[in-house]
Amino acid sequence: MKVFGPDLSKLVKFLTYGVYRPGIQMRRNSWQDGVLGTNCPIQPKKNFTYQFQVKDQIGSFFYFPPLNFQRESGGFGAIIINNRNVIAIPFALPDGDIVILIGDWYTQNHTALRTILDSGEELGMPDGVLINGKGPYQYNTTLVPAGIEYETINVDPAIHFFRSKTYRFRVHNVGISTSLNFRIQGHKLLLVETEGHYTTQQNFTSFDIHVGQSCSFLVTMDQNATTDYYIVASARFVNESVWERVTGVAILHYSNSKGPVTGPLPLPPSDIYNQWSAMNQPRSIRQNTTASGARLNPQGSFHYGSINVTGTYVLRSLPPVMIDGKLRATLNGISFVNPDTPIRLADMHNVKGAYKLDFPNKPLDRTPHKDRSVVNATYKGCIEIILQNNDTRMQSFHMDGYAFFVVGMDFGQWTESSRNNYNKWDAISRCTTEVYPGGWAAVFVSLDNVGVWNLRMENFDRWYLGQETYMRIINPEENGDTEMAPPENIIYCGPFRACRRNQKALLQWHWSVRLPTRRLYLHDYLNFLAQQLFNLPSQVLQE
Fold first, then answer.
1. Which of 16, 394, 452, 482 sits CB 3.0–4.6 Å from 343 for a disulfide?
2. In the predicted model, is pLDDT for residue 519 greater than 90?
3. What separation in angstroms does the CA of 111 have from each of 42, 121, 274, 460, 504?
């Protein structure tokens, strides 16, 4: 595994934060997931070492701080997991790997953006798009002032006269809320992978990458090598005349280039007012069923379409509304509030009322409200999740701990008859899918990863406003094989904040008794701590 990005130690001096890695499945180990429902945040001037395996995974991913809009201020970087040497990749070995991080950008910092949302307003149009953390090349003297630092990607055009070099571009949308169209002037993008799964290979002149998504393209340096070329990431599905400034521009520089790039940017897709046409692109992404990923057996050997579906969840998202005087976003009418104690930690210590296992499996006709409702899922079940976007803007849906099969996508309201058009053979498997406004997407998930896993809208403003929940998947016959024990360096918070200095002894005791065989109420537990860990009389904590 290779990691490309900033030194996160710079964050610990000032921020309460965590680190999340979308697409890395943390098999049997939701203790390391990094979001508030599974981990207490890392406190300022403290550190935490995440320990996890990337077993049975390959591909292109990234990491970022998930709390309080911190991703807007940076702290993100790329993760590359390569195939083992004994497993061939389904294309010729590229001549190099190039990481491209694209994302919308606001001049205001993450605390100011939170203040905007907390005041009941929406964020509005971003101030630009960054490519690898840098501003746009001055392609237009009116829109782009001089002196802005921009990204340059250096490449070699050819190995010899008969063969041009081919590079693997790993592109990640690390932004806050804006879908972006990615393109390289004069070059074709051969899609080969999305978030850890190889795709059937097809060429695109441009490609839509939505918030939180990752894609790999093979790009051959077969153009006139005496000039440079534009690399562009521009806002998608917006009024382009108004959003013209929301464009990131980098330079593709051939090693024997004789001069800078000139002329206008390559045009974006012309289907802005024809989203039916735009949806054909994600619908065309199919899994390469004969390629091998992390294992020798082909990706298509898992016949998801023949598995019995044990449950269906219809998750409906709506535009934000005012709840208790604050702007909030909902799924099925519930705006999620993170518990004081992370869910699995609350399980381990039998904290009563930390959350509720009552998330509805379909929208209910009731007043939107805030709650701590969690999905109570069945281990080894296979569920169908319908993502109904009744909002007015494009959304990205993400699930931690899993990759799901995107079996269907369309406009209008999903109905049971929509299943007739599902792709049950070669649907792409990924962890983040787009859901068009006024449309739906359907995914299948095989629940074989024990733990507590976040379901959310990846658009940060909606996520911050409560458009998320968690799925609790517990093996009732747990013997240590399907879920790892909590790490010795686990962070405590909420009612257990005072237990940090004795956490090792605390963990040893609790993991030895196993939750199904012993139940403690919170006051019993605190009395035990007083006697066993702090050498205090139990009555000290009675008050």
1. 452
2. no
3. 18, 14, 37, 13, 35
Torsion of CA 233, 239, 242, 245, to 10 degrees: 0
Encoded tokens for 488: 């010795």
What is the distance between the alpha carbons of residues 349 and 519, in angstroms, rounded to a whole number?
8
Radius of gyration of the chain (CA): 24
Burial class (CB in 10 A: 0-12, 13-18, 19+), 157: middle
Burial call 5-14: b when 16+ CB within 10 Å, e when fewer: beebeebbee
Residue 215 near residue 162, CB atoms below 8 Å: no
- Planar angle of CA 28, 298, 443, nearest 5 degrees: 60
Percent of the chain whose pLDDT exceeds 90: 61
Cα–Cα distance measured from residue 120 to residue 385, given in angstroms and rounded to the nearest whole number = 30
Superfamily of domain covering 299-474 = Cupredoxins -  blue copper proteins (2.60.40.420)
327: which residues sit within 8 A by CB, 6+ positions away? 117, 118, 120, 121, 122, 320, 321, 465
Distance CA 228, CA 522 (A): 65
- Return the ∠ at Cα 60 (arms to 56 and 64), rounded to 5°: 105
Reference 435, options 461, 469, 415, 459; nearest CA is: 459
Higher pLDDT, 61 or 204: 204
Phi, psi dihedral angles at 419 (to 5 degrees):
-65, -20
For the chain, the domains span 299-474, 494-541
Whole-number average pLDDT of the chain: 86
**DSSP character at residue 416:** G
pLDDT value of position 318: 96
DSSP state of 41: P
Better pLDDT: 93 or 163: 93
Tokens 């009552």 belong to which residue?
A: 358
Across the strands, what pairs with 103?
130
